Amino acid sequence: MKMYFDDRLIDGQFLRTLNHAYHQGADVGECMATAARIKANDIESWYREWTAIAERFYQQGEKSASVGHRVSAKESYLKACNYFRTSSIFLYSPATAAQLKEAYIKHRDAFRKAIQFFDTPVELVEIPYENTTLKGYFMSADNTNKPRPTVILNGGYDSCAEELYFFSGAAAVARGYNCLLFDGPGQGGALIVEGIPSRYDWEHVLTPVVNYLLTKKDVQQNRIALMGISFGGYLAPRAASVEHRIIALIADPAQLDIFDAMKQRMPKFILEGLTGKGRLKKSIANIVMKKVLQHPTKGWALRRGLYVHGVATVKDYIDTIQQYSIKQGIKHISCNTLVCDAESDEISMFAKMVYDLLDCPKSYIKFKDSEGAGEHCEDGNRSLFNQRVFDWLDETFVTM
């Protein structure tokens, strides 16, 4: 579903930014005007132009807040938050980590200023985790402290807690759910500020999160749901296979084995060269990968992978992701589970297989191009995703 740019990756990220207009994180005209100033396949001009519009809305938020225009301040800060995130999306790389950190902190600051003007309470949280804390936000459905069903939003590779608000956090609260947004290892501030890389055994991340929720009086302990978005479609099912206090699971899109998915995308001779013993194949593969890593867009996923997993080489990255599989644990998922799929999303390639392998009460939804929801994470029509998923969750909790 082309929006503006010829490069599919850049256009996909542009659609992602536009997608957040539904919850006041963007507006179509200003996004199109910004896109028109970006040079084709030039990620430096991408960073420059999105940063400029983010700065403009941040300053507008400051001005509106200073004179008591609460709605205008909130909307300006939310746009600044989304646009700062957009500006930095191609900076996920060890080489540009410092620049990414600067943009991320501005993005986070804009969101934290926006939540001061929300109609429902938002609490900054720090959840004890090993020798640090997991930072995030607890969004209450209202200010009554009445126990409510609660949804944990679990993001993905270039995820951050603040963007989860636009994806499904606002939709959850609007429907009477509490919602917890957080950054785990390899995500948002945990990665960019604290330098904590991702880990495959996500149950060790989620259990402290559930422990935290169970200390809160406004959380119904038998009504905790977990939604995994993007790479979270692996992380959340992996955690739910061990953490059985999760009552309902949504995987968007459901993923089975990250290495198997890589094998579908990477040429066989390159993968064999990187993982095998032949010197010639290895030499050729390394030359090809070096060239790919230097390409502005074709190398983005690999650069991001090195950064998120805290590894130095593509070979190290491949070795690491071979641990990311739920093949052995999928039969241990016992909660009500909704598997989501999207027609034009290559990351969804194993979603139906996940559904077929599940032994628990399960449902399956495939979002279609004809609905404008066939892209990754239903970008372009996330409101349709939220309608169908939260309706399913309402009905699931009612029947339990």
Give the full name of the CATH homologous superfamily of the largest domain.
Alpha/Beta hydrolase fold, catalytic domain
Described by strand count, sense and barrel closure, the largest sheet is: 8 strands, mixed
Overall outline: globular
CATH architecture tag of the largest domain:
3-Layer(aba) Sandwich
Q: How many β-strands, per DSSP?
A: 8
The proportion of residues in beta strands is 5-15%
Mean pLDDT: 96
**Tally of discrete structural domains:** 3
Radius of gyration: 20 Å
Question: Helical content, roughly?
Answer: 40-55%
Cα separation of the termini: 39 Å
Spatial arrangement of strands, main beta sheet: 1-2-4-3-5-6-7-8
Relevant terms:
48% helix, alpha/beta, 400 residues, Rossmann fold, 3 domains, eight-stranded mixed β-sheet, 8 strands, de novo design (two linked rop proteins), 16 helices
Q: What is the gist of this entry?
A:
With 400 residues, the protein is an alpha/beta fold.
Summarize the structure in words:
This protein has 400 residues and is of the alpha/beta class. It folds into 3 domains: 8-113, acylaminoacyl peptidase (de novo design (two linked rop proteins), Up-down Bundle), CATH 1.20.1440.110; 120-256 and 334-398, Alpha/Beta hydrolase fold, catalytic domain (Rossmann fold); 260-321, no CATH class. The protein is built from 16 helices and 8 strands. It has helices spanning 8-19, 28-36, 43-66, 70-87, 97-114, 161-174, 188-192, 203-213, 232-240, 258-265, 268-275, 279-294, 300-309, 314-321, 351-357, 382-398; strands at 122-129, 132-139, 148-154, 178-182, 219-229, 248-252, 336-342, 362-367. Strands 1-2-4-3-5-6-7-8 form an 8-stranded mixed beta sheet, sandwiched between helices. Helix 3 (43-66) packs antiparallel against helix 4 (70-87), helix 6 (161-174) packs across helix 16 and helix 13 crosses helix 14. The chain starts with 7 loop residues before the first helix and ends with a helix. The mean pLDDT is 96.
